[in-house]
Each structure stands twice: as structure tokens, then as C-alpha cells.
Predict the 3D structure of the following.
Amino acid sequence: MGKGTQAARLSKVFNIPHVATGDMLRGAIQSYTPLGQRAKQFIDKGQLVPDDLVLDLLGERLQQPDTERGFLLDGFPRTVPQAEVLGRMLIGYGKKLDRVLVLDAPEEELVRRISGRRTCESCQTTYHVDSKPPKVAGVCDRCGGVLIQRSDDSEQIIRNRLREFLAKTKPVLDYFMSEKWPVRKIDANGNMDQIFGRIYAAVLLS
Ligand code: AMP
């Protein structure tokens, strides 16, 4: 939904690892791990992956030494139990959250953005059929690889993902508020640079 692109940019600016549970799950699927095989059934339907699988992956990732100086979580937590476990993990690591960034965009805009998204099979560069088209349709500008649509980016699956968001992820926002986590809501209308400007300001200034 653009969050991955923004998170990658932000983690570069702050020189901290970008820890994206969606990327980690897709990596597990590509490597045919047992966890990846279980996760795939849910992702392909537009459902959230069960908490225990995601938490296993994340727990392992956060033990790697590159996260000691800080990290940026992308797409996590997506359920209240995930948020509760994260809270406990952070206490265990002696870390606190500096910011929780919530990107807010209208549903139809999300469907448009996600359904137009294409990714290079070889180098993973992302494109968008309207806002960032490749020079030659279906071909990566950078490496000449084939551009594909993610299996969970079709319109029907996107609508399922939005339903899951309303049922399971929206309550996480109330949880953040009740626990007084440092939430900043970002208006995610506009182009990538405008949105990044708002994110950067929310991180640095507020
Ligand atoms: P993303 O790349 O963040 O859009 O995630 C793609 C898909 O991976 C989601 O639609 C979920 O099926 C799954 N996923 C990613 N992160 C989580 C998470 N924190 N909890 C459950 N499922 C997740």
C-alpha cells in the first residue's frame, strides 16, 4: 500500500534495518520452508497469517545483532495479540518505541494503488501501472526481468485484505491509544514524496 516503499526509504535515512513481516513471509514462501508453506494458504486468500507464525519469524529476526541500534517494523503488529507480545518483547530487550506511524488512505485509493502494483521477478524493484510505469510494459527498467503481480494483489483478494484490516487490525489502533503508545496519524493521500515528507516530519518534529 506504499507503506513498504516509505518504510524502506525511512530505514535508509535513519540507517536502521527495515523489518517487514510481509517480506519475511514471502521470503519463507520462496524458500519453501514449512512455515512459508503454511503462511501461503492465508496470504493467497488475503487473510492474516496466524499470530504464532508471524511471531516466530519476528522473534528470530529481532535477535539478530543489526537490530541492536534500533529497527523499523513494517506491517507489524496487525492484531491485538501481536501488539501485546511486541510490548513484552520490547520490555525484554530493554527497548521502547519512538513512534507508531499510522498511514491513512481511502479504501478506493488503496485498491487502485495495490491492484496497479507490479514487481520485478528478478530484482524486486516495484512499479505501478499508472504512477510509476516501466519504460516497456512488463519489463524491468533496471535489469530487464519480467514484471509480475503479487498473487495477493488482485482486486478480490485486496478487498479481503481490507476486510481483515477492519476486523483485526483496526482494533490495534484503539489498543495503541489505550496503552498510550506514541501514535502519529499520517495523511497518505498524495504522491510518494509528499507522504514521505509528512512521515519524516512526524518522526523528527512531533
Ligand atoms: P504486506 O506485505 O505487509 O502487505 O503483507 C502481505 C500479507 O502477509 C498480508 O496480507 C498478510 O497475509 C501477511 N502478513 C504480513 N504481516 C503480517 C502480520 N503482522 N500478521 C499477519 N499476517 C501478516
Notes: Residues 77 and 92 are 17 Å apart (CA to CA).
